[in-house]
Amino acid sequence: MHVIVTGGSSGIGLAIAKLYATRGAKVSLFARHPGRLEQARIEIAAMPGADLSRIQIAPVDVASANRVSEAVDICERAFGPCDLLIASAGIVEPSAFDSMPATVFDEQIATNLLGTANVVRAVYKGMKTRRGGKIMMISSGAALIGIYGYTAYCASKSALIGFAEALSAEAAVSGVDVSICFPPDTLTPQYSHEMSMRPAEAELLMGTVKPWSAEAVAAKIVRGLDRGRTRIHFGLSLTALGYFGPLIKPLLMWWYFRKLRKIIEEGRDESLARSTDKGFG
Fold this sequence. Notes:
Pathway: Lipid metabolism; sphingolipid metabolism; Sphingolipid metabolism. By secondary structure, this protein is of the alpha/beta class.
């Protein structure tokens, strides 16, 4: 079995790669940083049941369709056709939309949405020809509801829902299984970076869900794939949003907007008070 994992140098991608490597699968890790990829390769190989010779790395930016296609071709020549794709590469740079540079917005779309499409495209034709294969797209709980400061991230991750559904319709007759999952906040290196930038307005909503470990998220994804699940949700609140979003979101957003207005008004009052104090000083 040959498993290709994008975003495989850390976080959820690395945790999933470890699980398949310990099962004896051949694993190809894709990520942008060669040093981190090599470190991940060594880390996986040290696990019981894993074999260094069955783990290869491919430094590549998934936003480049040509580079991704070349990387997949090289990995398939070495380890055979891809049986399972884990599209886990993703980035997040939270900021209010009017404060976010266009380049930052575009990069999130390019990596999270187009990057997923690029790697899927690179393996999909071969899977169709062989009439078999599995594709798992790692979306996010942020795909299920709009969050302050996450316009680019929410847009890119929610777009994967439509992509996965449409591709499933096309792939079904060819024996290719397409799945998507919606992880919550996950304790990864990227999460630490994200938290340093997350607006307080976003934390008001997102802080109500306790972060999962990357290992727990990975284990649930792999179990879901083993059972043929097409959608995988995490935790009660995100599962409820996933299945009953149209019913739940109006009330949830009413509560959220009410809280936001209160925070904004309190901030204005404090700012006005400081200005007044300075004026009479």
